[in-house]
From TrEMBL:
Protein name: Deoxyribonuclease IV
Gene3D superfamilies linked: Divalent-metal-dependent TIM barrel enzymes
The species this protein was found in: Pseudonocardia xishanensis
Entry similarity comment: Belongs to the AP endonuclease 2 family.
InterPro entries: AP_endonuc_2, AP_endonuc_F2_Zn_BS, Xyl_isomerase-like_sf, Xyl_isomerase-like_TIM-brl
Keywords carried by this UniProt record: DNA damage, DNA repair, Hydrolase, Metal-binding, Zinc
Length: 254
C-alpha cells in the first residue's frame, strides 16, 4: 500500500524524501488560477522515479457549472492538466466534483459532467485517468452527499472515471466514516485514491479544514480503518509539519 502526501510543487521528490513518502500529490499550476500548466522542471526525474505521482487540478475547476464562462474553461483546464500530468508520469488527475448555484438544478451539473467525459471518451480519453473527488460543502454539490454522488456516477461511471475519497470531506458532509469505503464502492465500484485527512471541525460542519491524523475531531483509528478497507494509494493533505508523523502512523497501522 502506497502512503504519501500532498507536497510543494517545486521539488516533489525532495519533499517525498523528507517525509518518507512513497506517493506524492502536487499542483502543476496556481491552484486558484486559470493558466495552462507549464512543463515541470523535474518532469523527467518524476516520470523515472520509484515515487508514484498524482496531480491535483486547480480549485477553480467546475465542470458542472451551467455558466459557460466557468464550465468551458474548466473543461479545457482539466484536459490540459491531464496532458501535463502524463508528462510527469502521474497515475491520475484529481478533480473536485463541482457544483451549481442555489437557484440551479443539480441535474444540469450532472449532465454537464456526462457530456464532458462522454465527449472525451469519444476522442480517445484523457491523457491520465481522472479521479472525481467528493467535497465537503454546498447543497447543490455534485459529490458532497453520497446520494448526489450516486446520481453523478449513474451518469459518468460507464466512461471509466475514477474516484478519490477524501475522509475530511466525507466527515464534514455528514457521511459516517465507519463503513464509508463499502458505501462508496457500492456507488462507484472503485476507490482509486484516498485523501486521508482529519478534520478541524465537527461532523456535518460543511467546513473543509484539514488536521493532522492524530490532531482532529476524527478518531485516528477510524482513519486507519478507512486506509485498510480502501486498499488504494493514500495521500495526506495535512499540515506539512506533521506529514512525516502522519505517514509513519498510517504505515504502522497498515
Amino acid at each position: 500500500m502506497l502512503i504519501g502526501a500532498h507536497v510543494r510543487d517545486d521539488d516533489p521528490l525532495a519533499a517525498a524524501a523528507e517525509r518518507g513518502a512513497e506517493i506524492v500529490q502536487f499542483f502543476l499550476a496556481d491552484p486558484q488560477g486559470w493558466k495552462e500548466p507549464q512543463p515541470h522542471p523535474h518532469a523527467e526525474a518524476l516520470a523515472a522515479s520509484d515515487v508514484v505521482t498524482v496531480v491535483h487540478s486547480p480549485y477553480v475547476v467546475n465542470v458542472a457549472s451551467p455558466n459557460n464562462r466557468i464550465r468551458i474553461p474548466s473543461r479545457k483546464l482539466v484536459t490540459q492538466h491531464a496532458e501535463a500530468a502524463a508528462e510527469v508520469g502521474a497515475i491520475g488527475l484529481v478533480v473536485h466534483g463541482g457544483h451549481v448555484t442555489k437557484d440551479e438544478d443539480p441535474a444540469v451539473g450532472v449532465d454537464n459532467w456526462r457530456k464532458f467525459v462522454e465527449r472525451q471518451a469519444g476522442e480517445g480519453g484523457f491523457a491520465v485517468p481522472v479521479f472525481i473527488e467528493n467535497t465537503a460543502g454546498g447543497d447543490n454539490a455534485m459529490a458532497r452527499k453520497f446520494d448526489a454522488l450516486a446520481r453523478l456516477w449513474d451518469a459518468v461511471g460507464e466512461f471509466g472515471v475514477g474516484f478519490c475519497l477524501d475522509t475530511c470531506h466525507a466527515f464534514a458532509a455528514g457521511e459516517e466514516l465507519v463503513g464509508v469505503v463499502e458505501r462508496a464502492k457500492a456507488i462507484t465500484g472503485r476507490i482509486d485514491l484516498v485523501h486521508l485527512n482529519n478534520s478541524r471541525d465537527e461532523f456535518d460542519s460543511a467546513r473543509d479544514r484539514h488536521a493532522n491524523v492524530e490532531d482532529g475531531t476524527i478518531e485516528p483509528e477510524v482513519l486507519a480503518a478507512v486506509v485498510a478497507a480502501a486498499g488504494a494509494p493514500v495521500v495526506v493533505e495535512t499540515p506539512a509539519e506533521g506529514q512525516a508523523a502522519d505517514i509513519a502512523y498510517l504505515r504502522a497501522k497498515a
